[in-house]
Design brief:
globular
């Protein structure tokens, strides 16, 4: 029950956070519909939900790493009269709140994307004064850095290992969390259809260990050059 409550709070927090970001991107695209005629518009619109899924995966892994193993104590049997055993007093550790785990995951992934690709700088920049060519040049640098950051943290593999546009068959016992059916869906599986997106899954995650000296409200430190 406790784990279910934590996961529920995580889902609500991610929905509010990235749902608001998606609405903001949609407003920007509504004000400048020209962006939808290039790859920039769809990329900006798809980025918040994709990053939200990544954060949810990271939070689930962080919860597993932060759960300590159960240690059982066995009292050795002594010969002779039974003596009372004095148990060492163990200081009680106050459990961390679920929101703290969310902050850890958000800071780690956003901090990495900012450090390698300046993602936060790009999203906070007002791109209205720039033309498509200038935006495209900036996005190329952001894409290169963020792609390198994702490779550093995740091992990624397609959910369906087939070429996009090819015909695939969906078995009767398929997992709806791994395969999303779109188009004219009716009847019962198995289904045959055209693969529009191969999907992504992670095969490994490499996140640094979190220390108590780090703060969870700083996504990227300020940089001051001393002359």
């Amino acid at each position: 029950m406790k784990k279910d409550a934590i996961r529920k709070r995580i889902l609500i927090g991610l929905f509010l956070w990235f749902g608001g970001l998606t609405v903001l991107v949609a407003v920007v695209l509504y004000l400048d519909p020209r962006l939808m005629h290039s790859w920039i518009g769809p990329s900006l619109l798809a980025a918040p939900p994709v990053i939200g899924v990544v954060f949810y995966i990271i939070v689930r892994l962080s919860l597993k790493e932060l759960e300590g193993p159960v240690v059982s104590k066995e009292i050795p049997k002594e010969k002779g009269p039974i003596r009372p055993v004095e148990e060492a007093s163990v200081p009680e550790v106050e459990p961390l709140s679920p929101s703290y785990y969310q902050e850890i995951a958000i800071v780690q992934i956003l901090g990495l994307l900012q450090r390698e690709g300046r993602l936060l700088d790009f999203l906070q920049e007002d791109i209205e004064p720039y033309d498509d060519a200038q935006i495209g040049a900036a996005v190329r640098e952001v894409h290169r850095g963020c792609r390198a950051a994702m490779k550093e943290v995740f091992g990624l593999a397609p959910v369906l290992d087939a070429a996009e546009g090819s015909q695939v068959e969906i078995e009767e016992d398929f997992d709806p969390t791994r395969i999303k059916l779109i188009g004219n869906v009716h009847g019962k599986p198995p289904f045959k259809g055209t693969l529009r997106h191969c999907g992504w899954r992670f095969t490994e995650v490499h996140l640094p260990k979190w220390t108590s000296k780090e703060t969870t409200d700083v996504l990227a430190p300020a940089e001051v050059e001393i002359s």
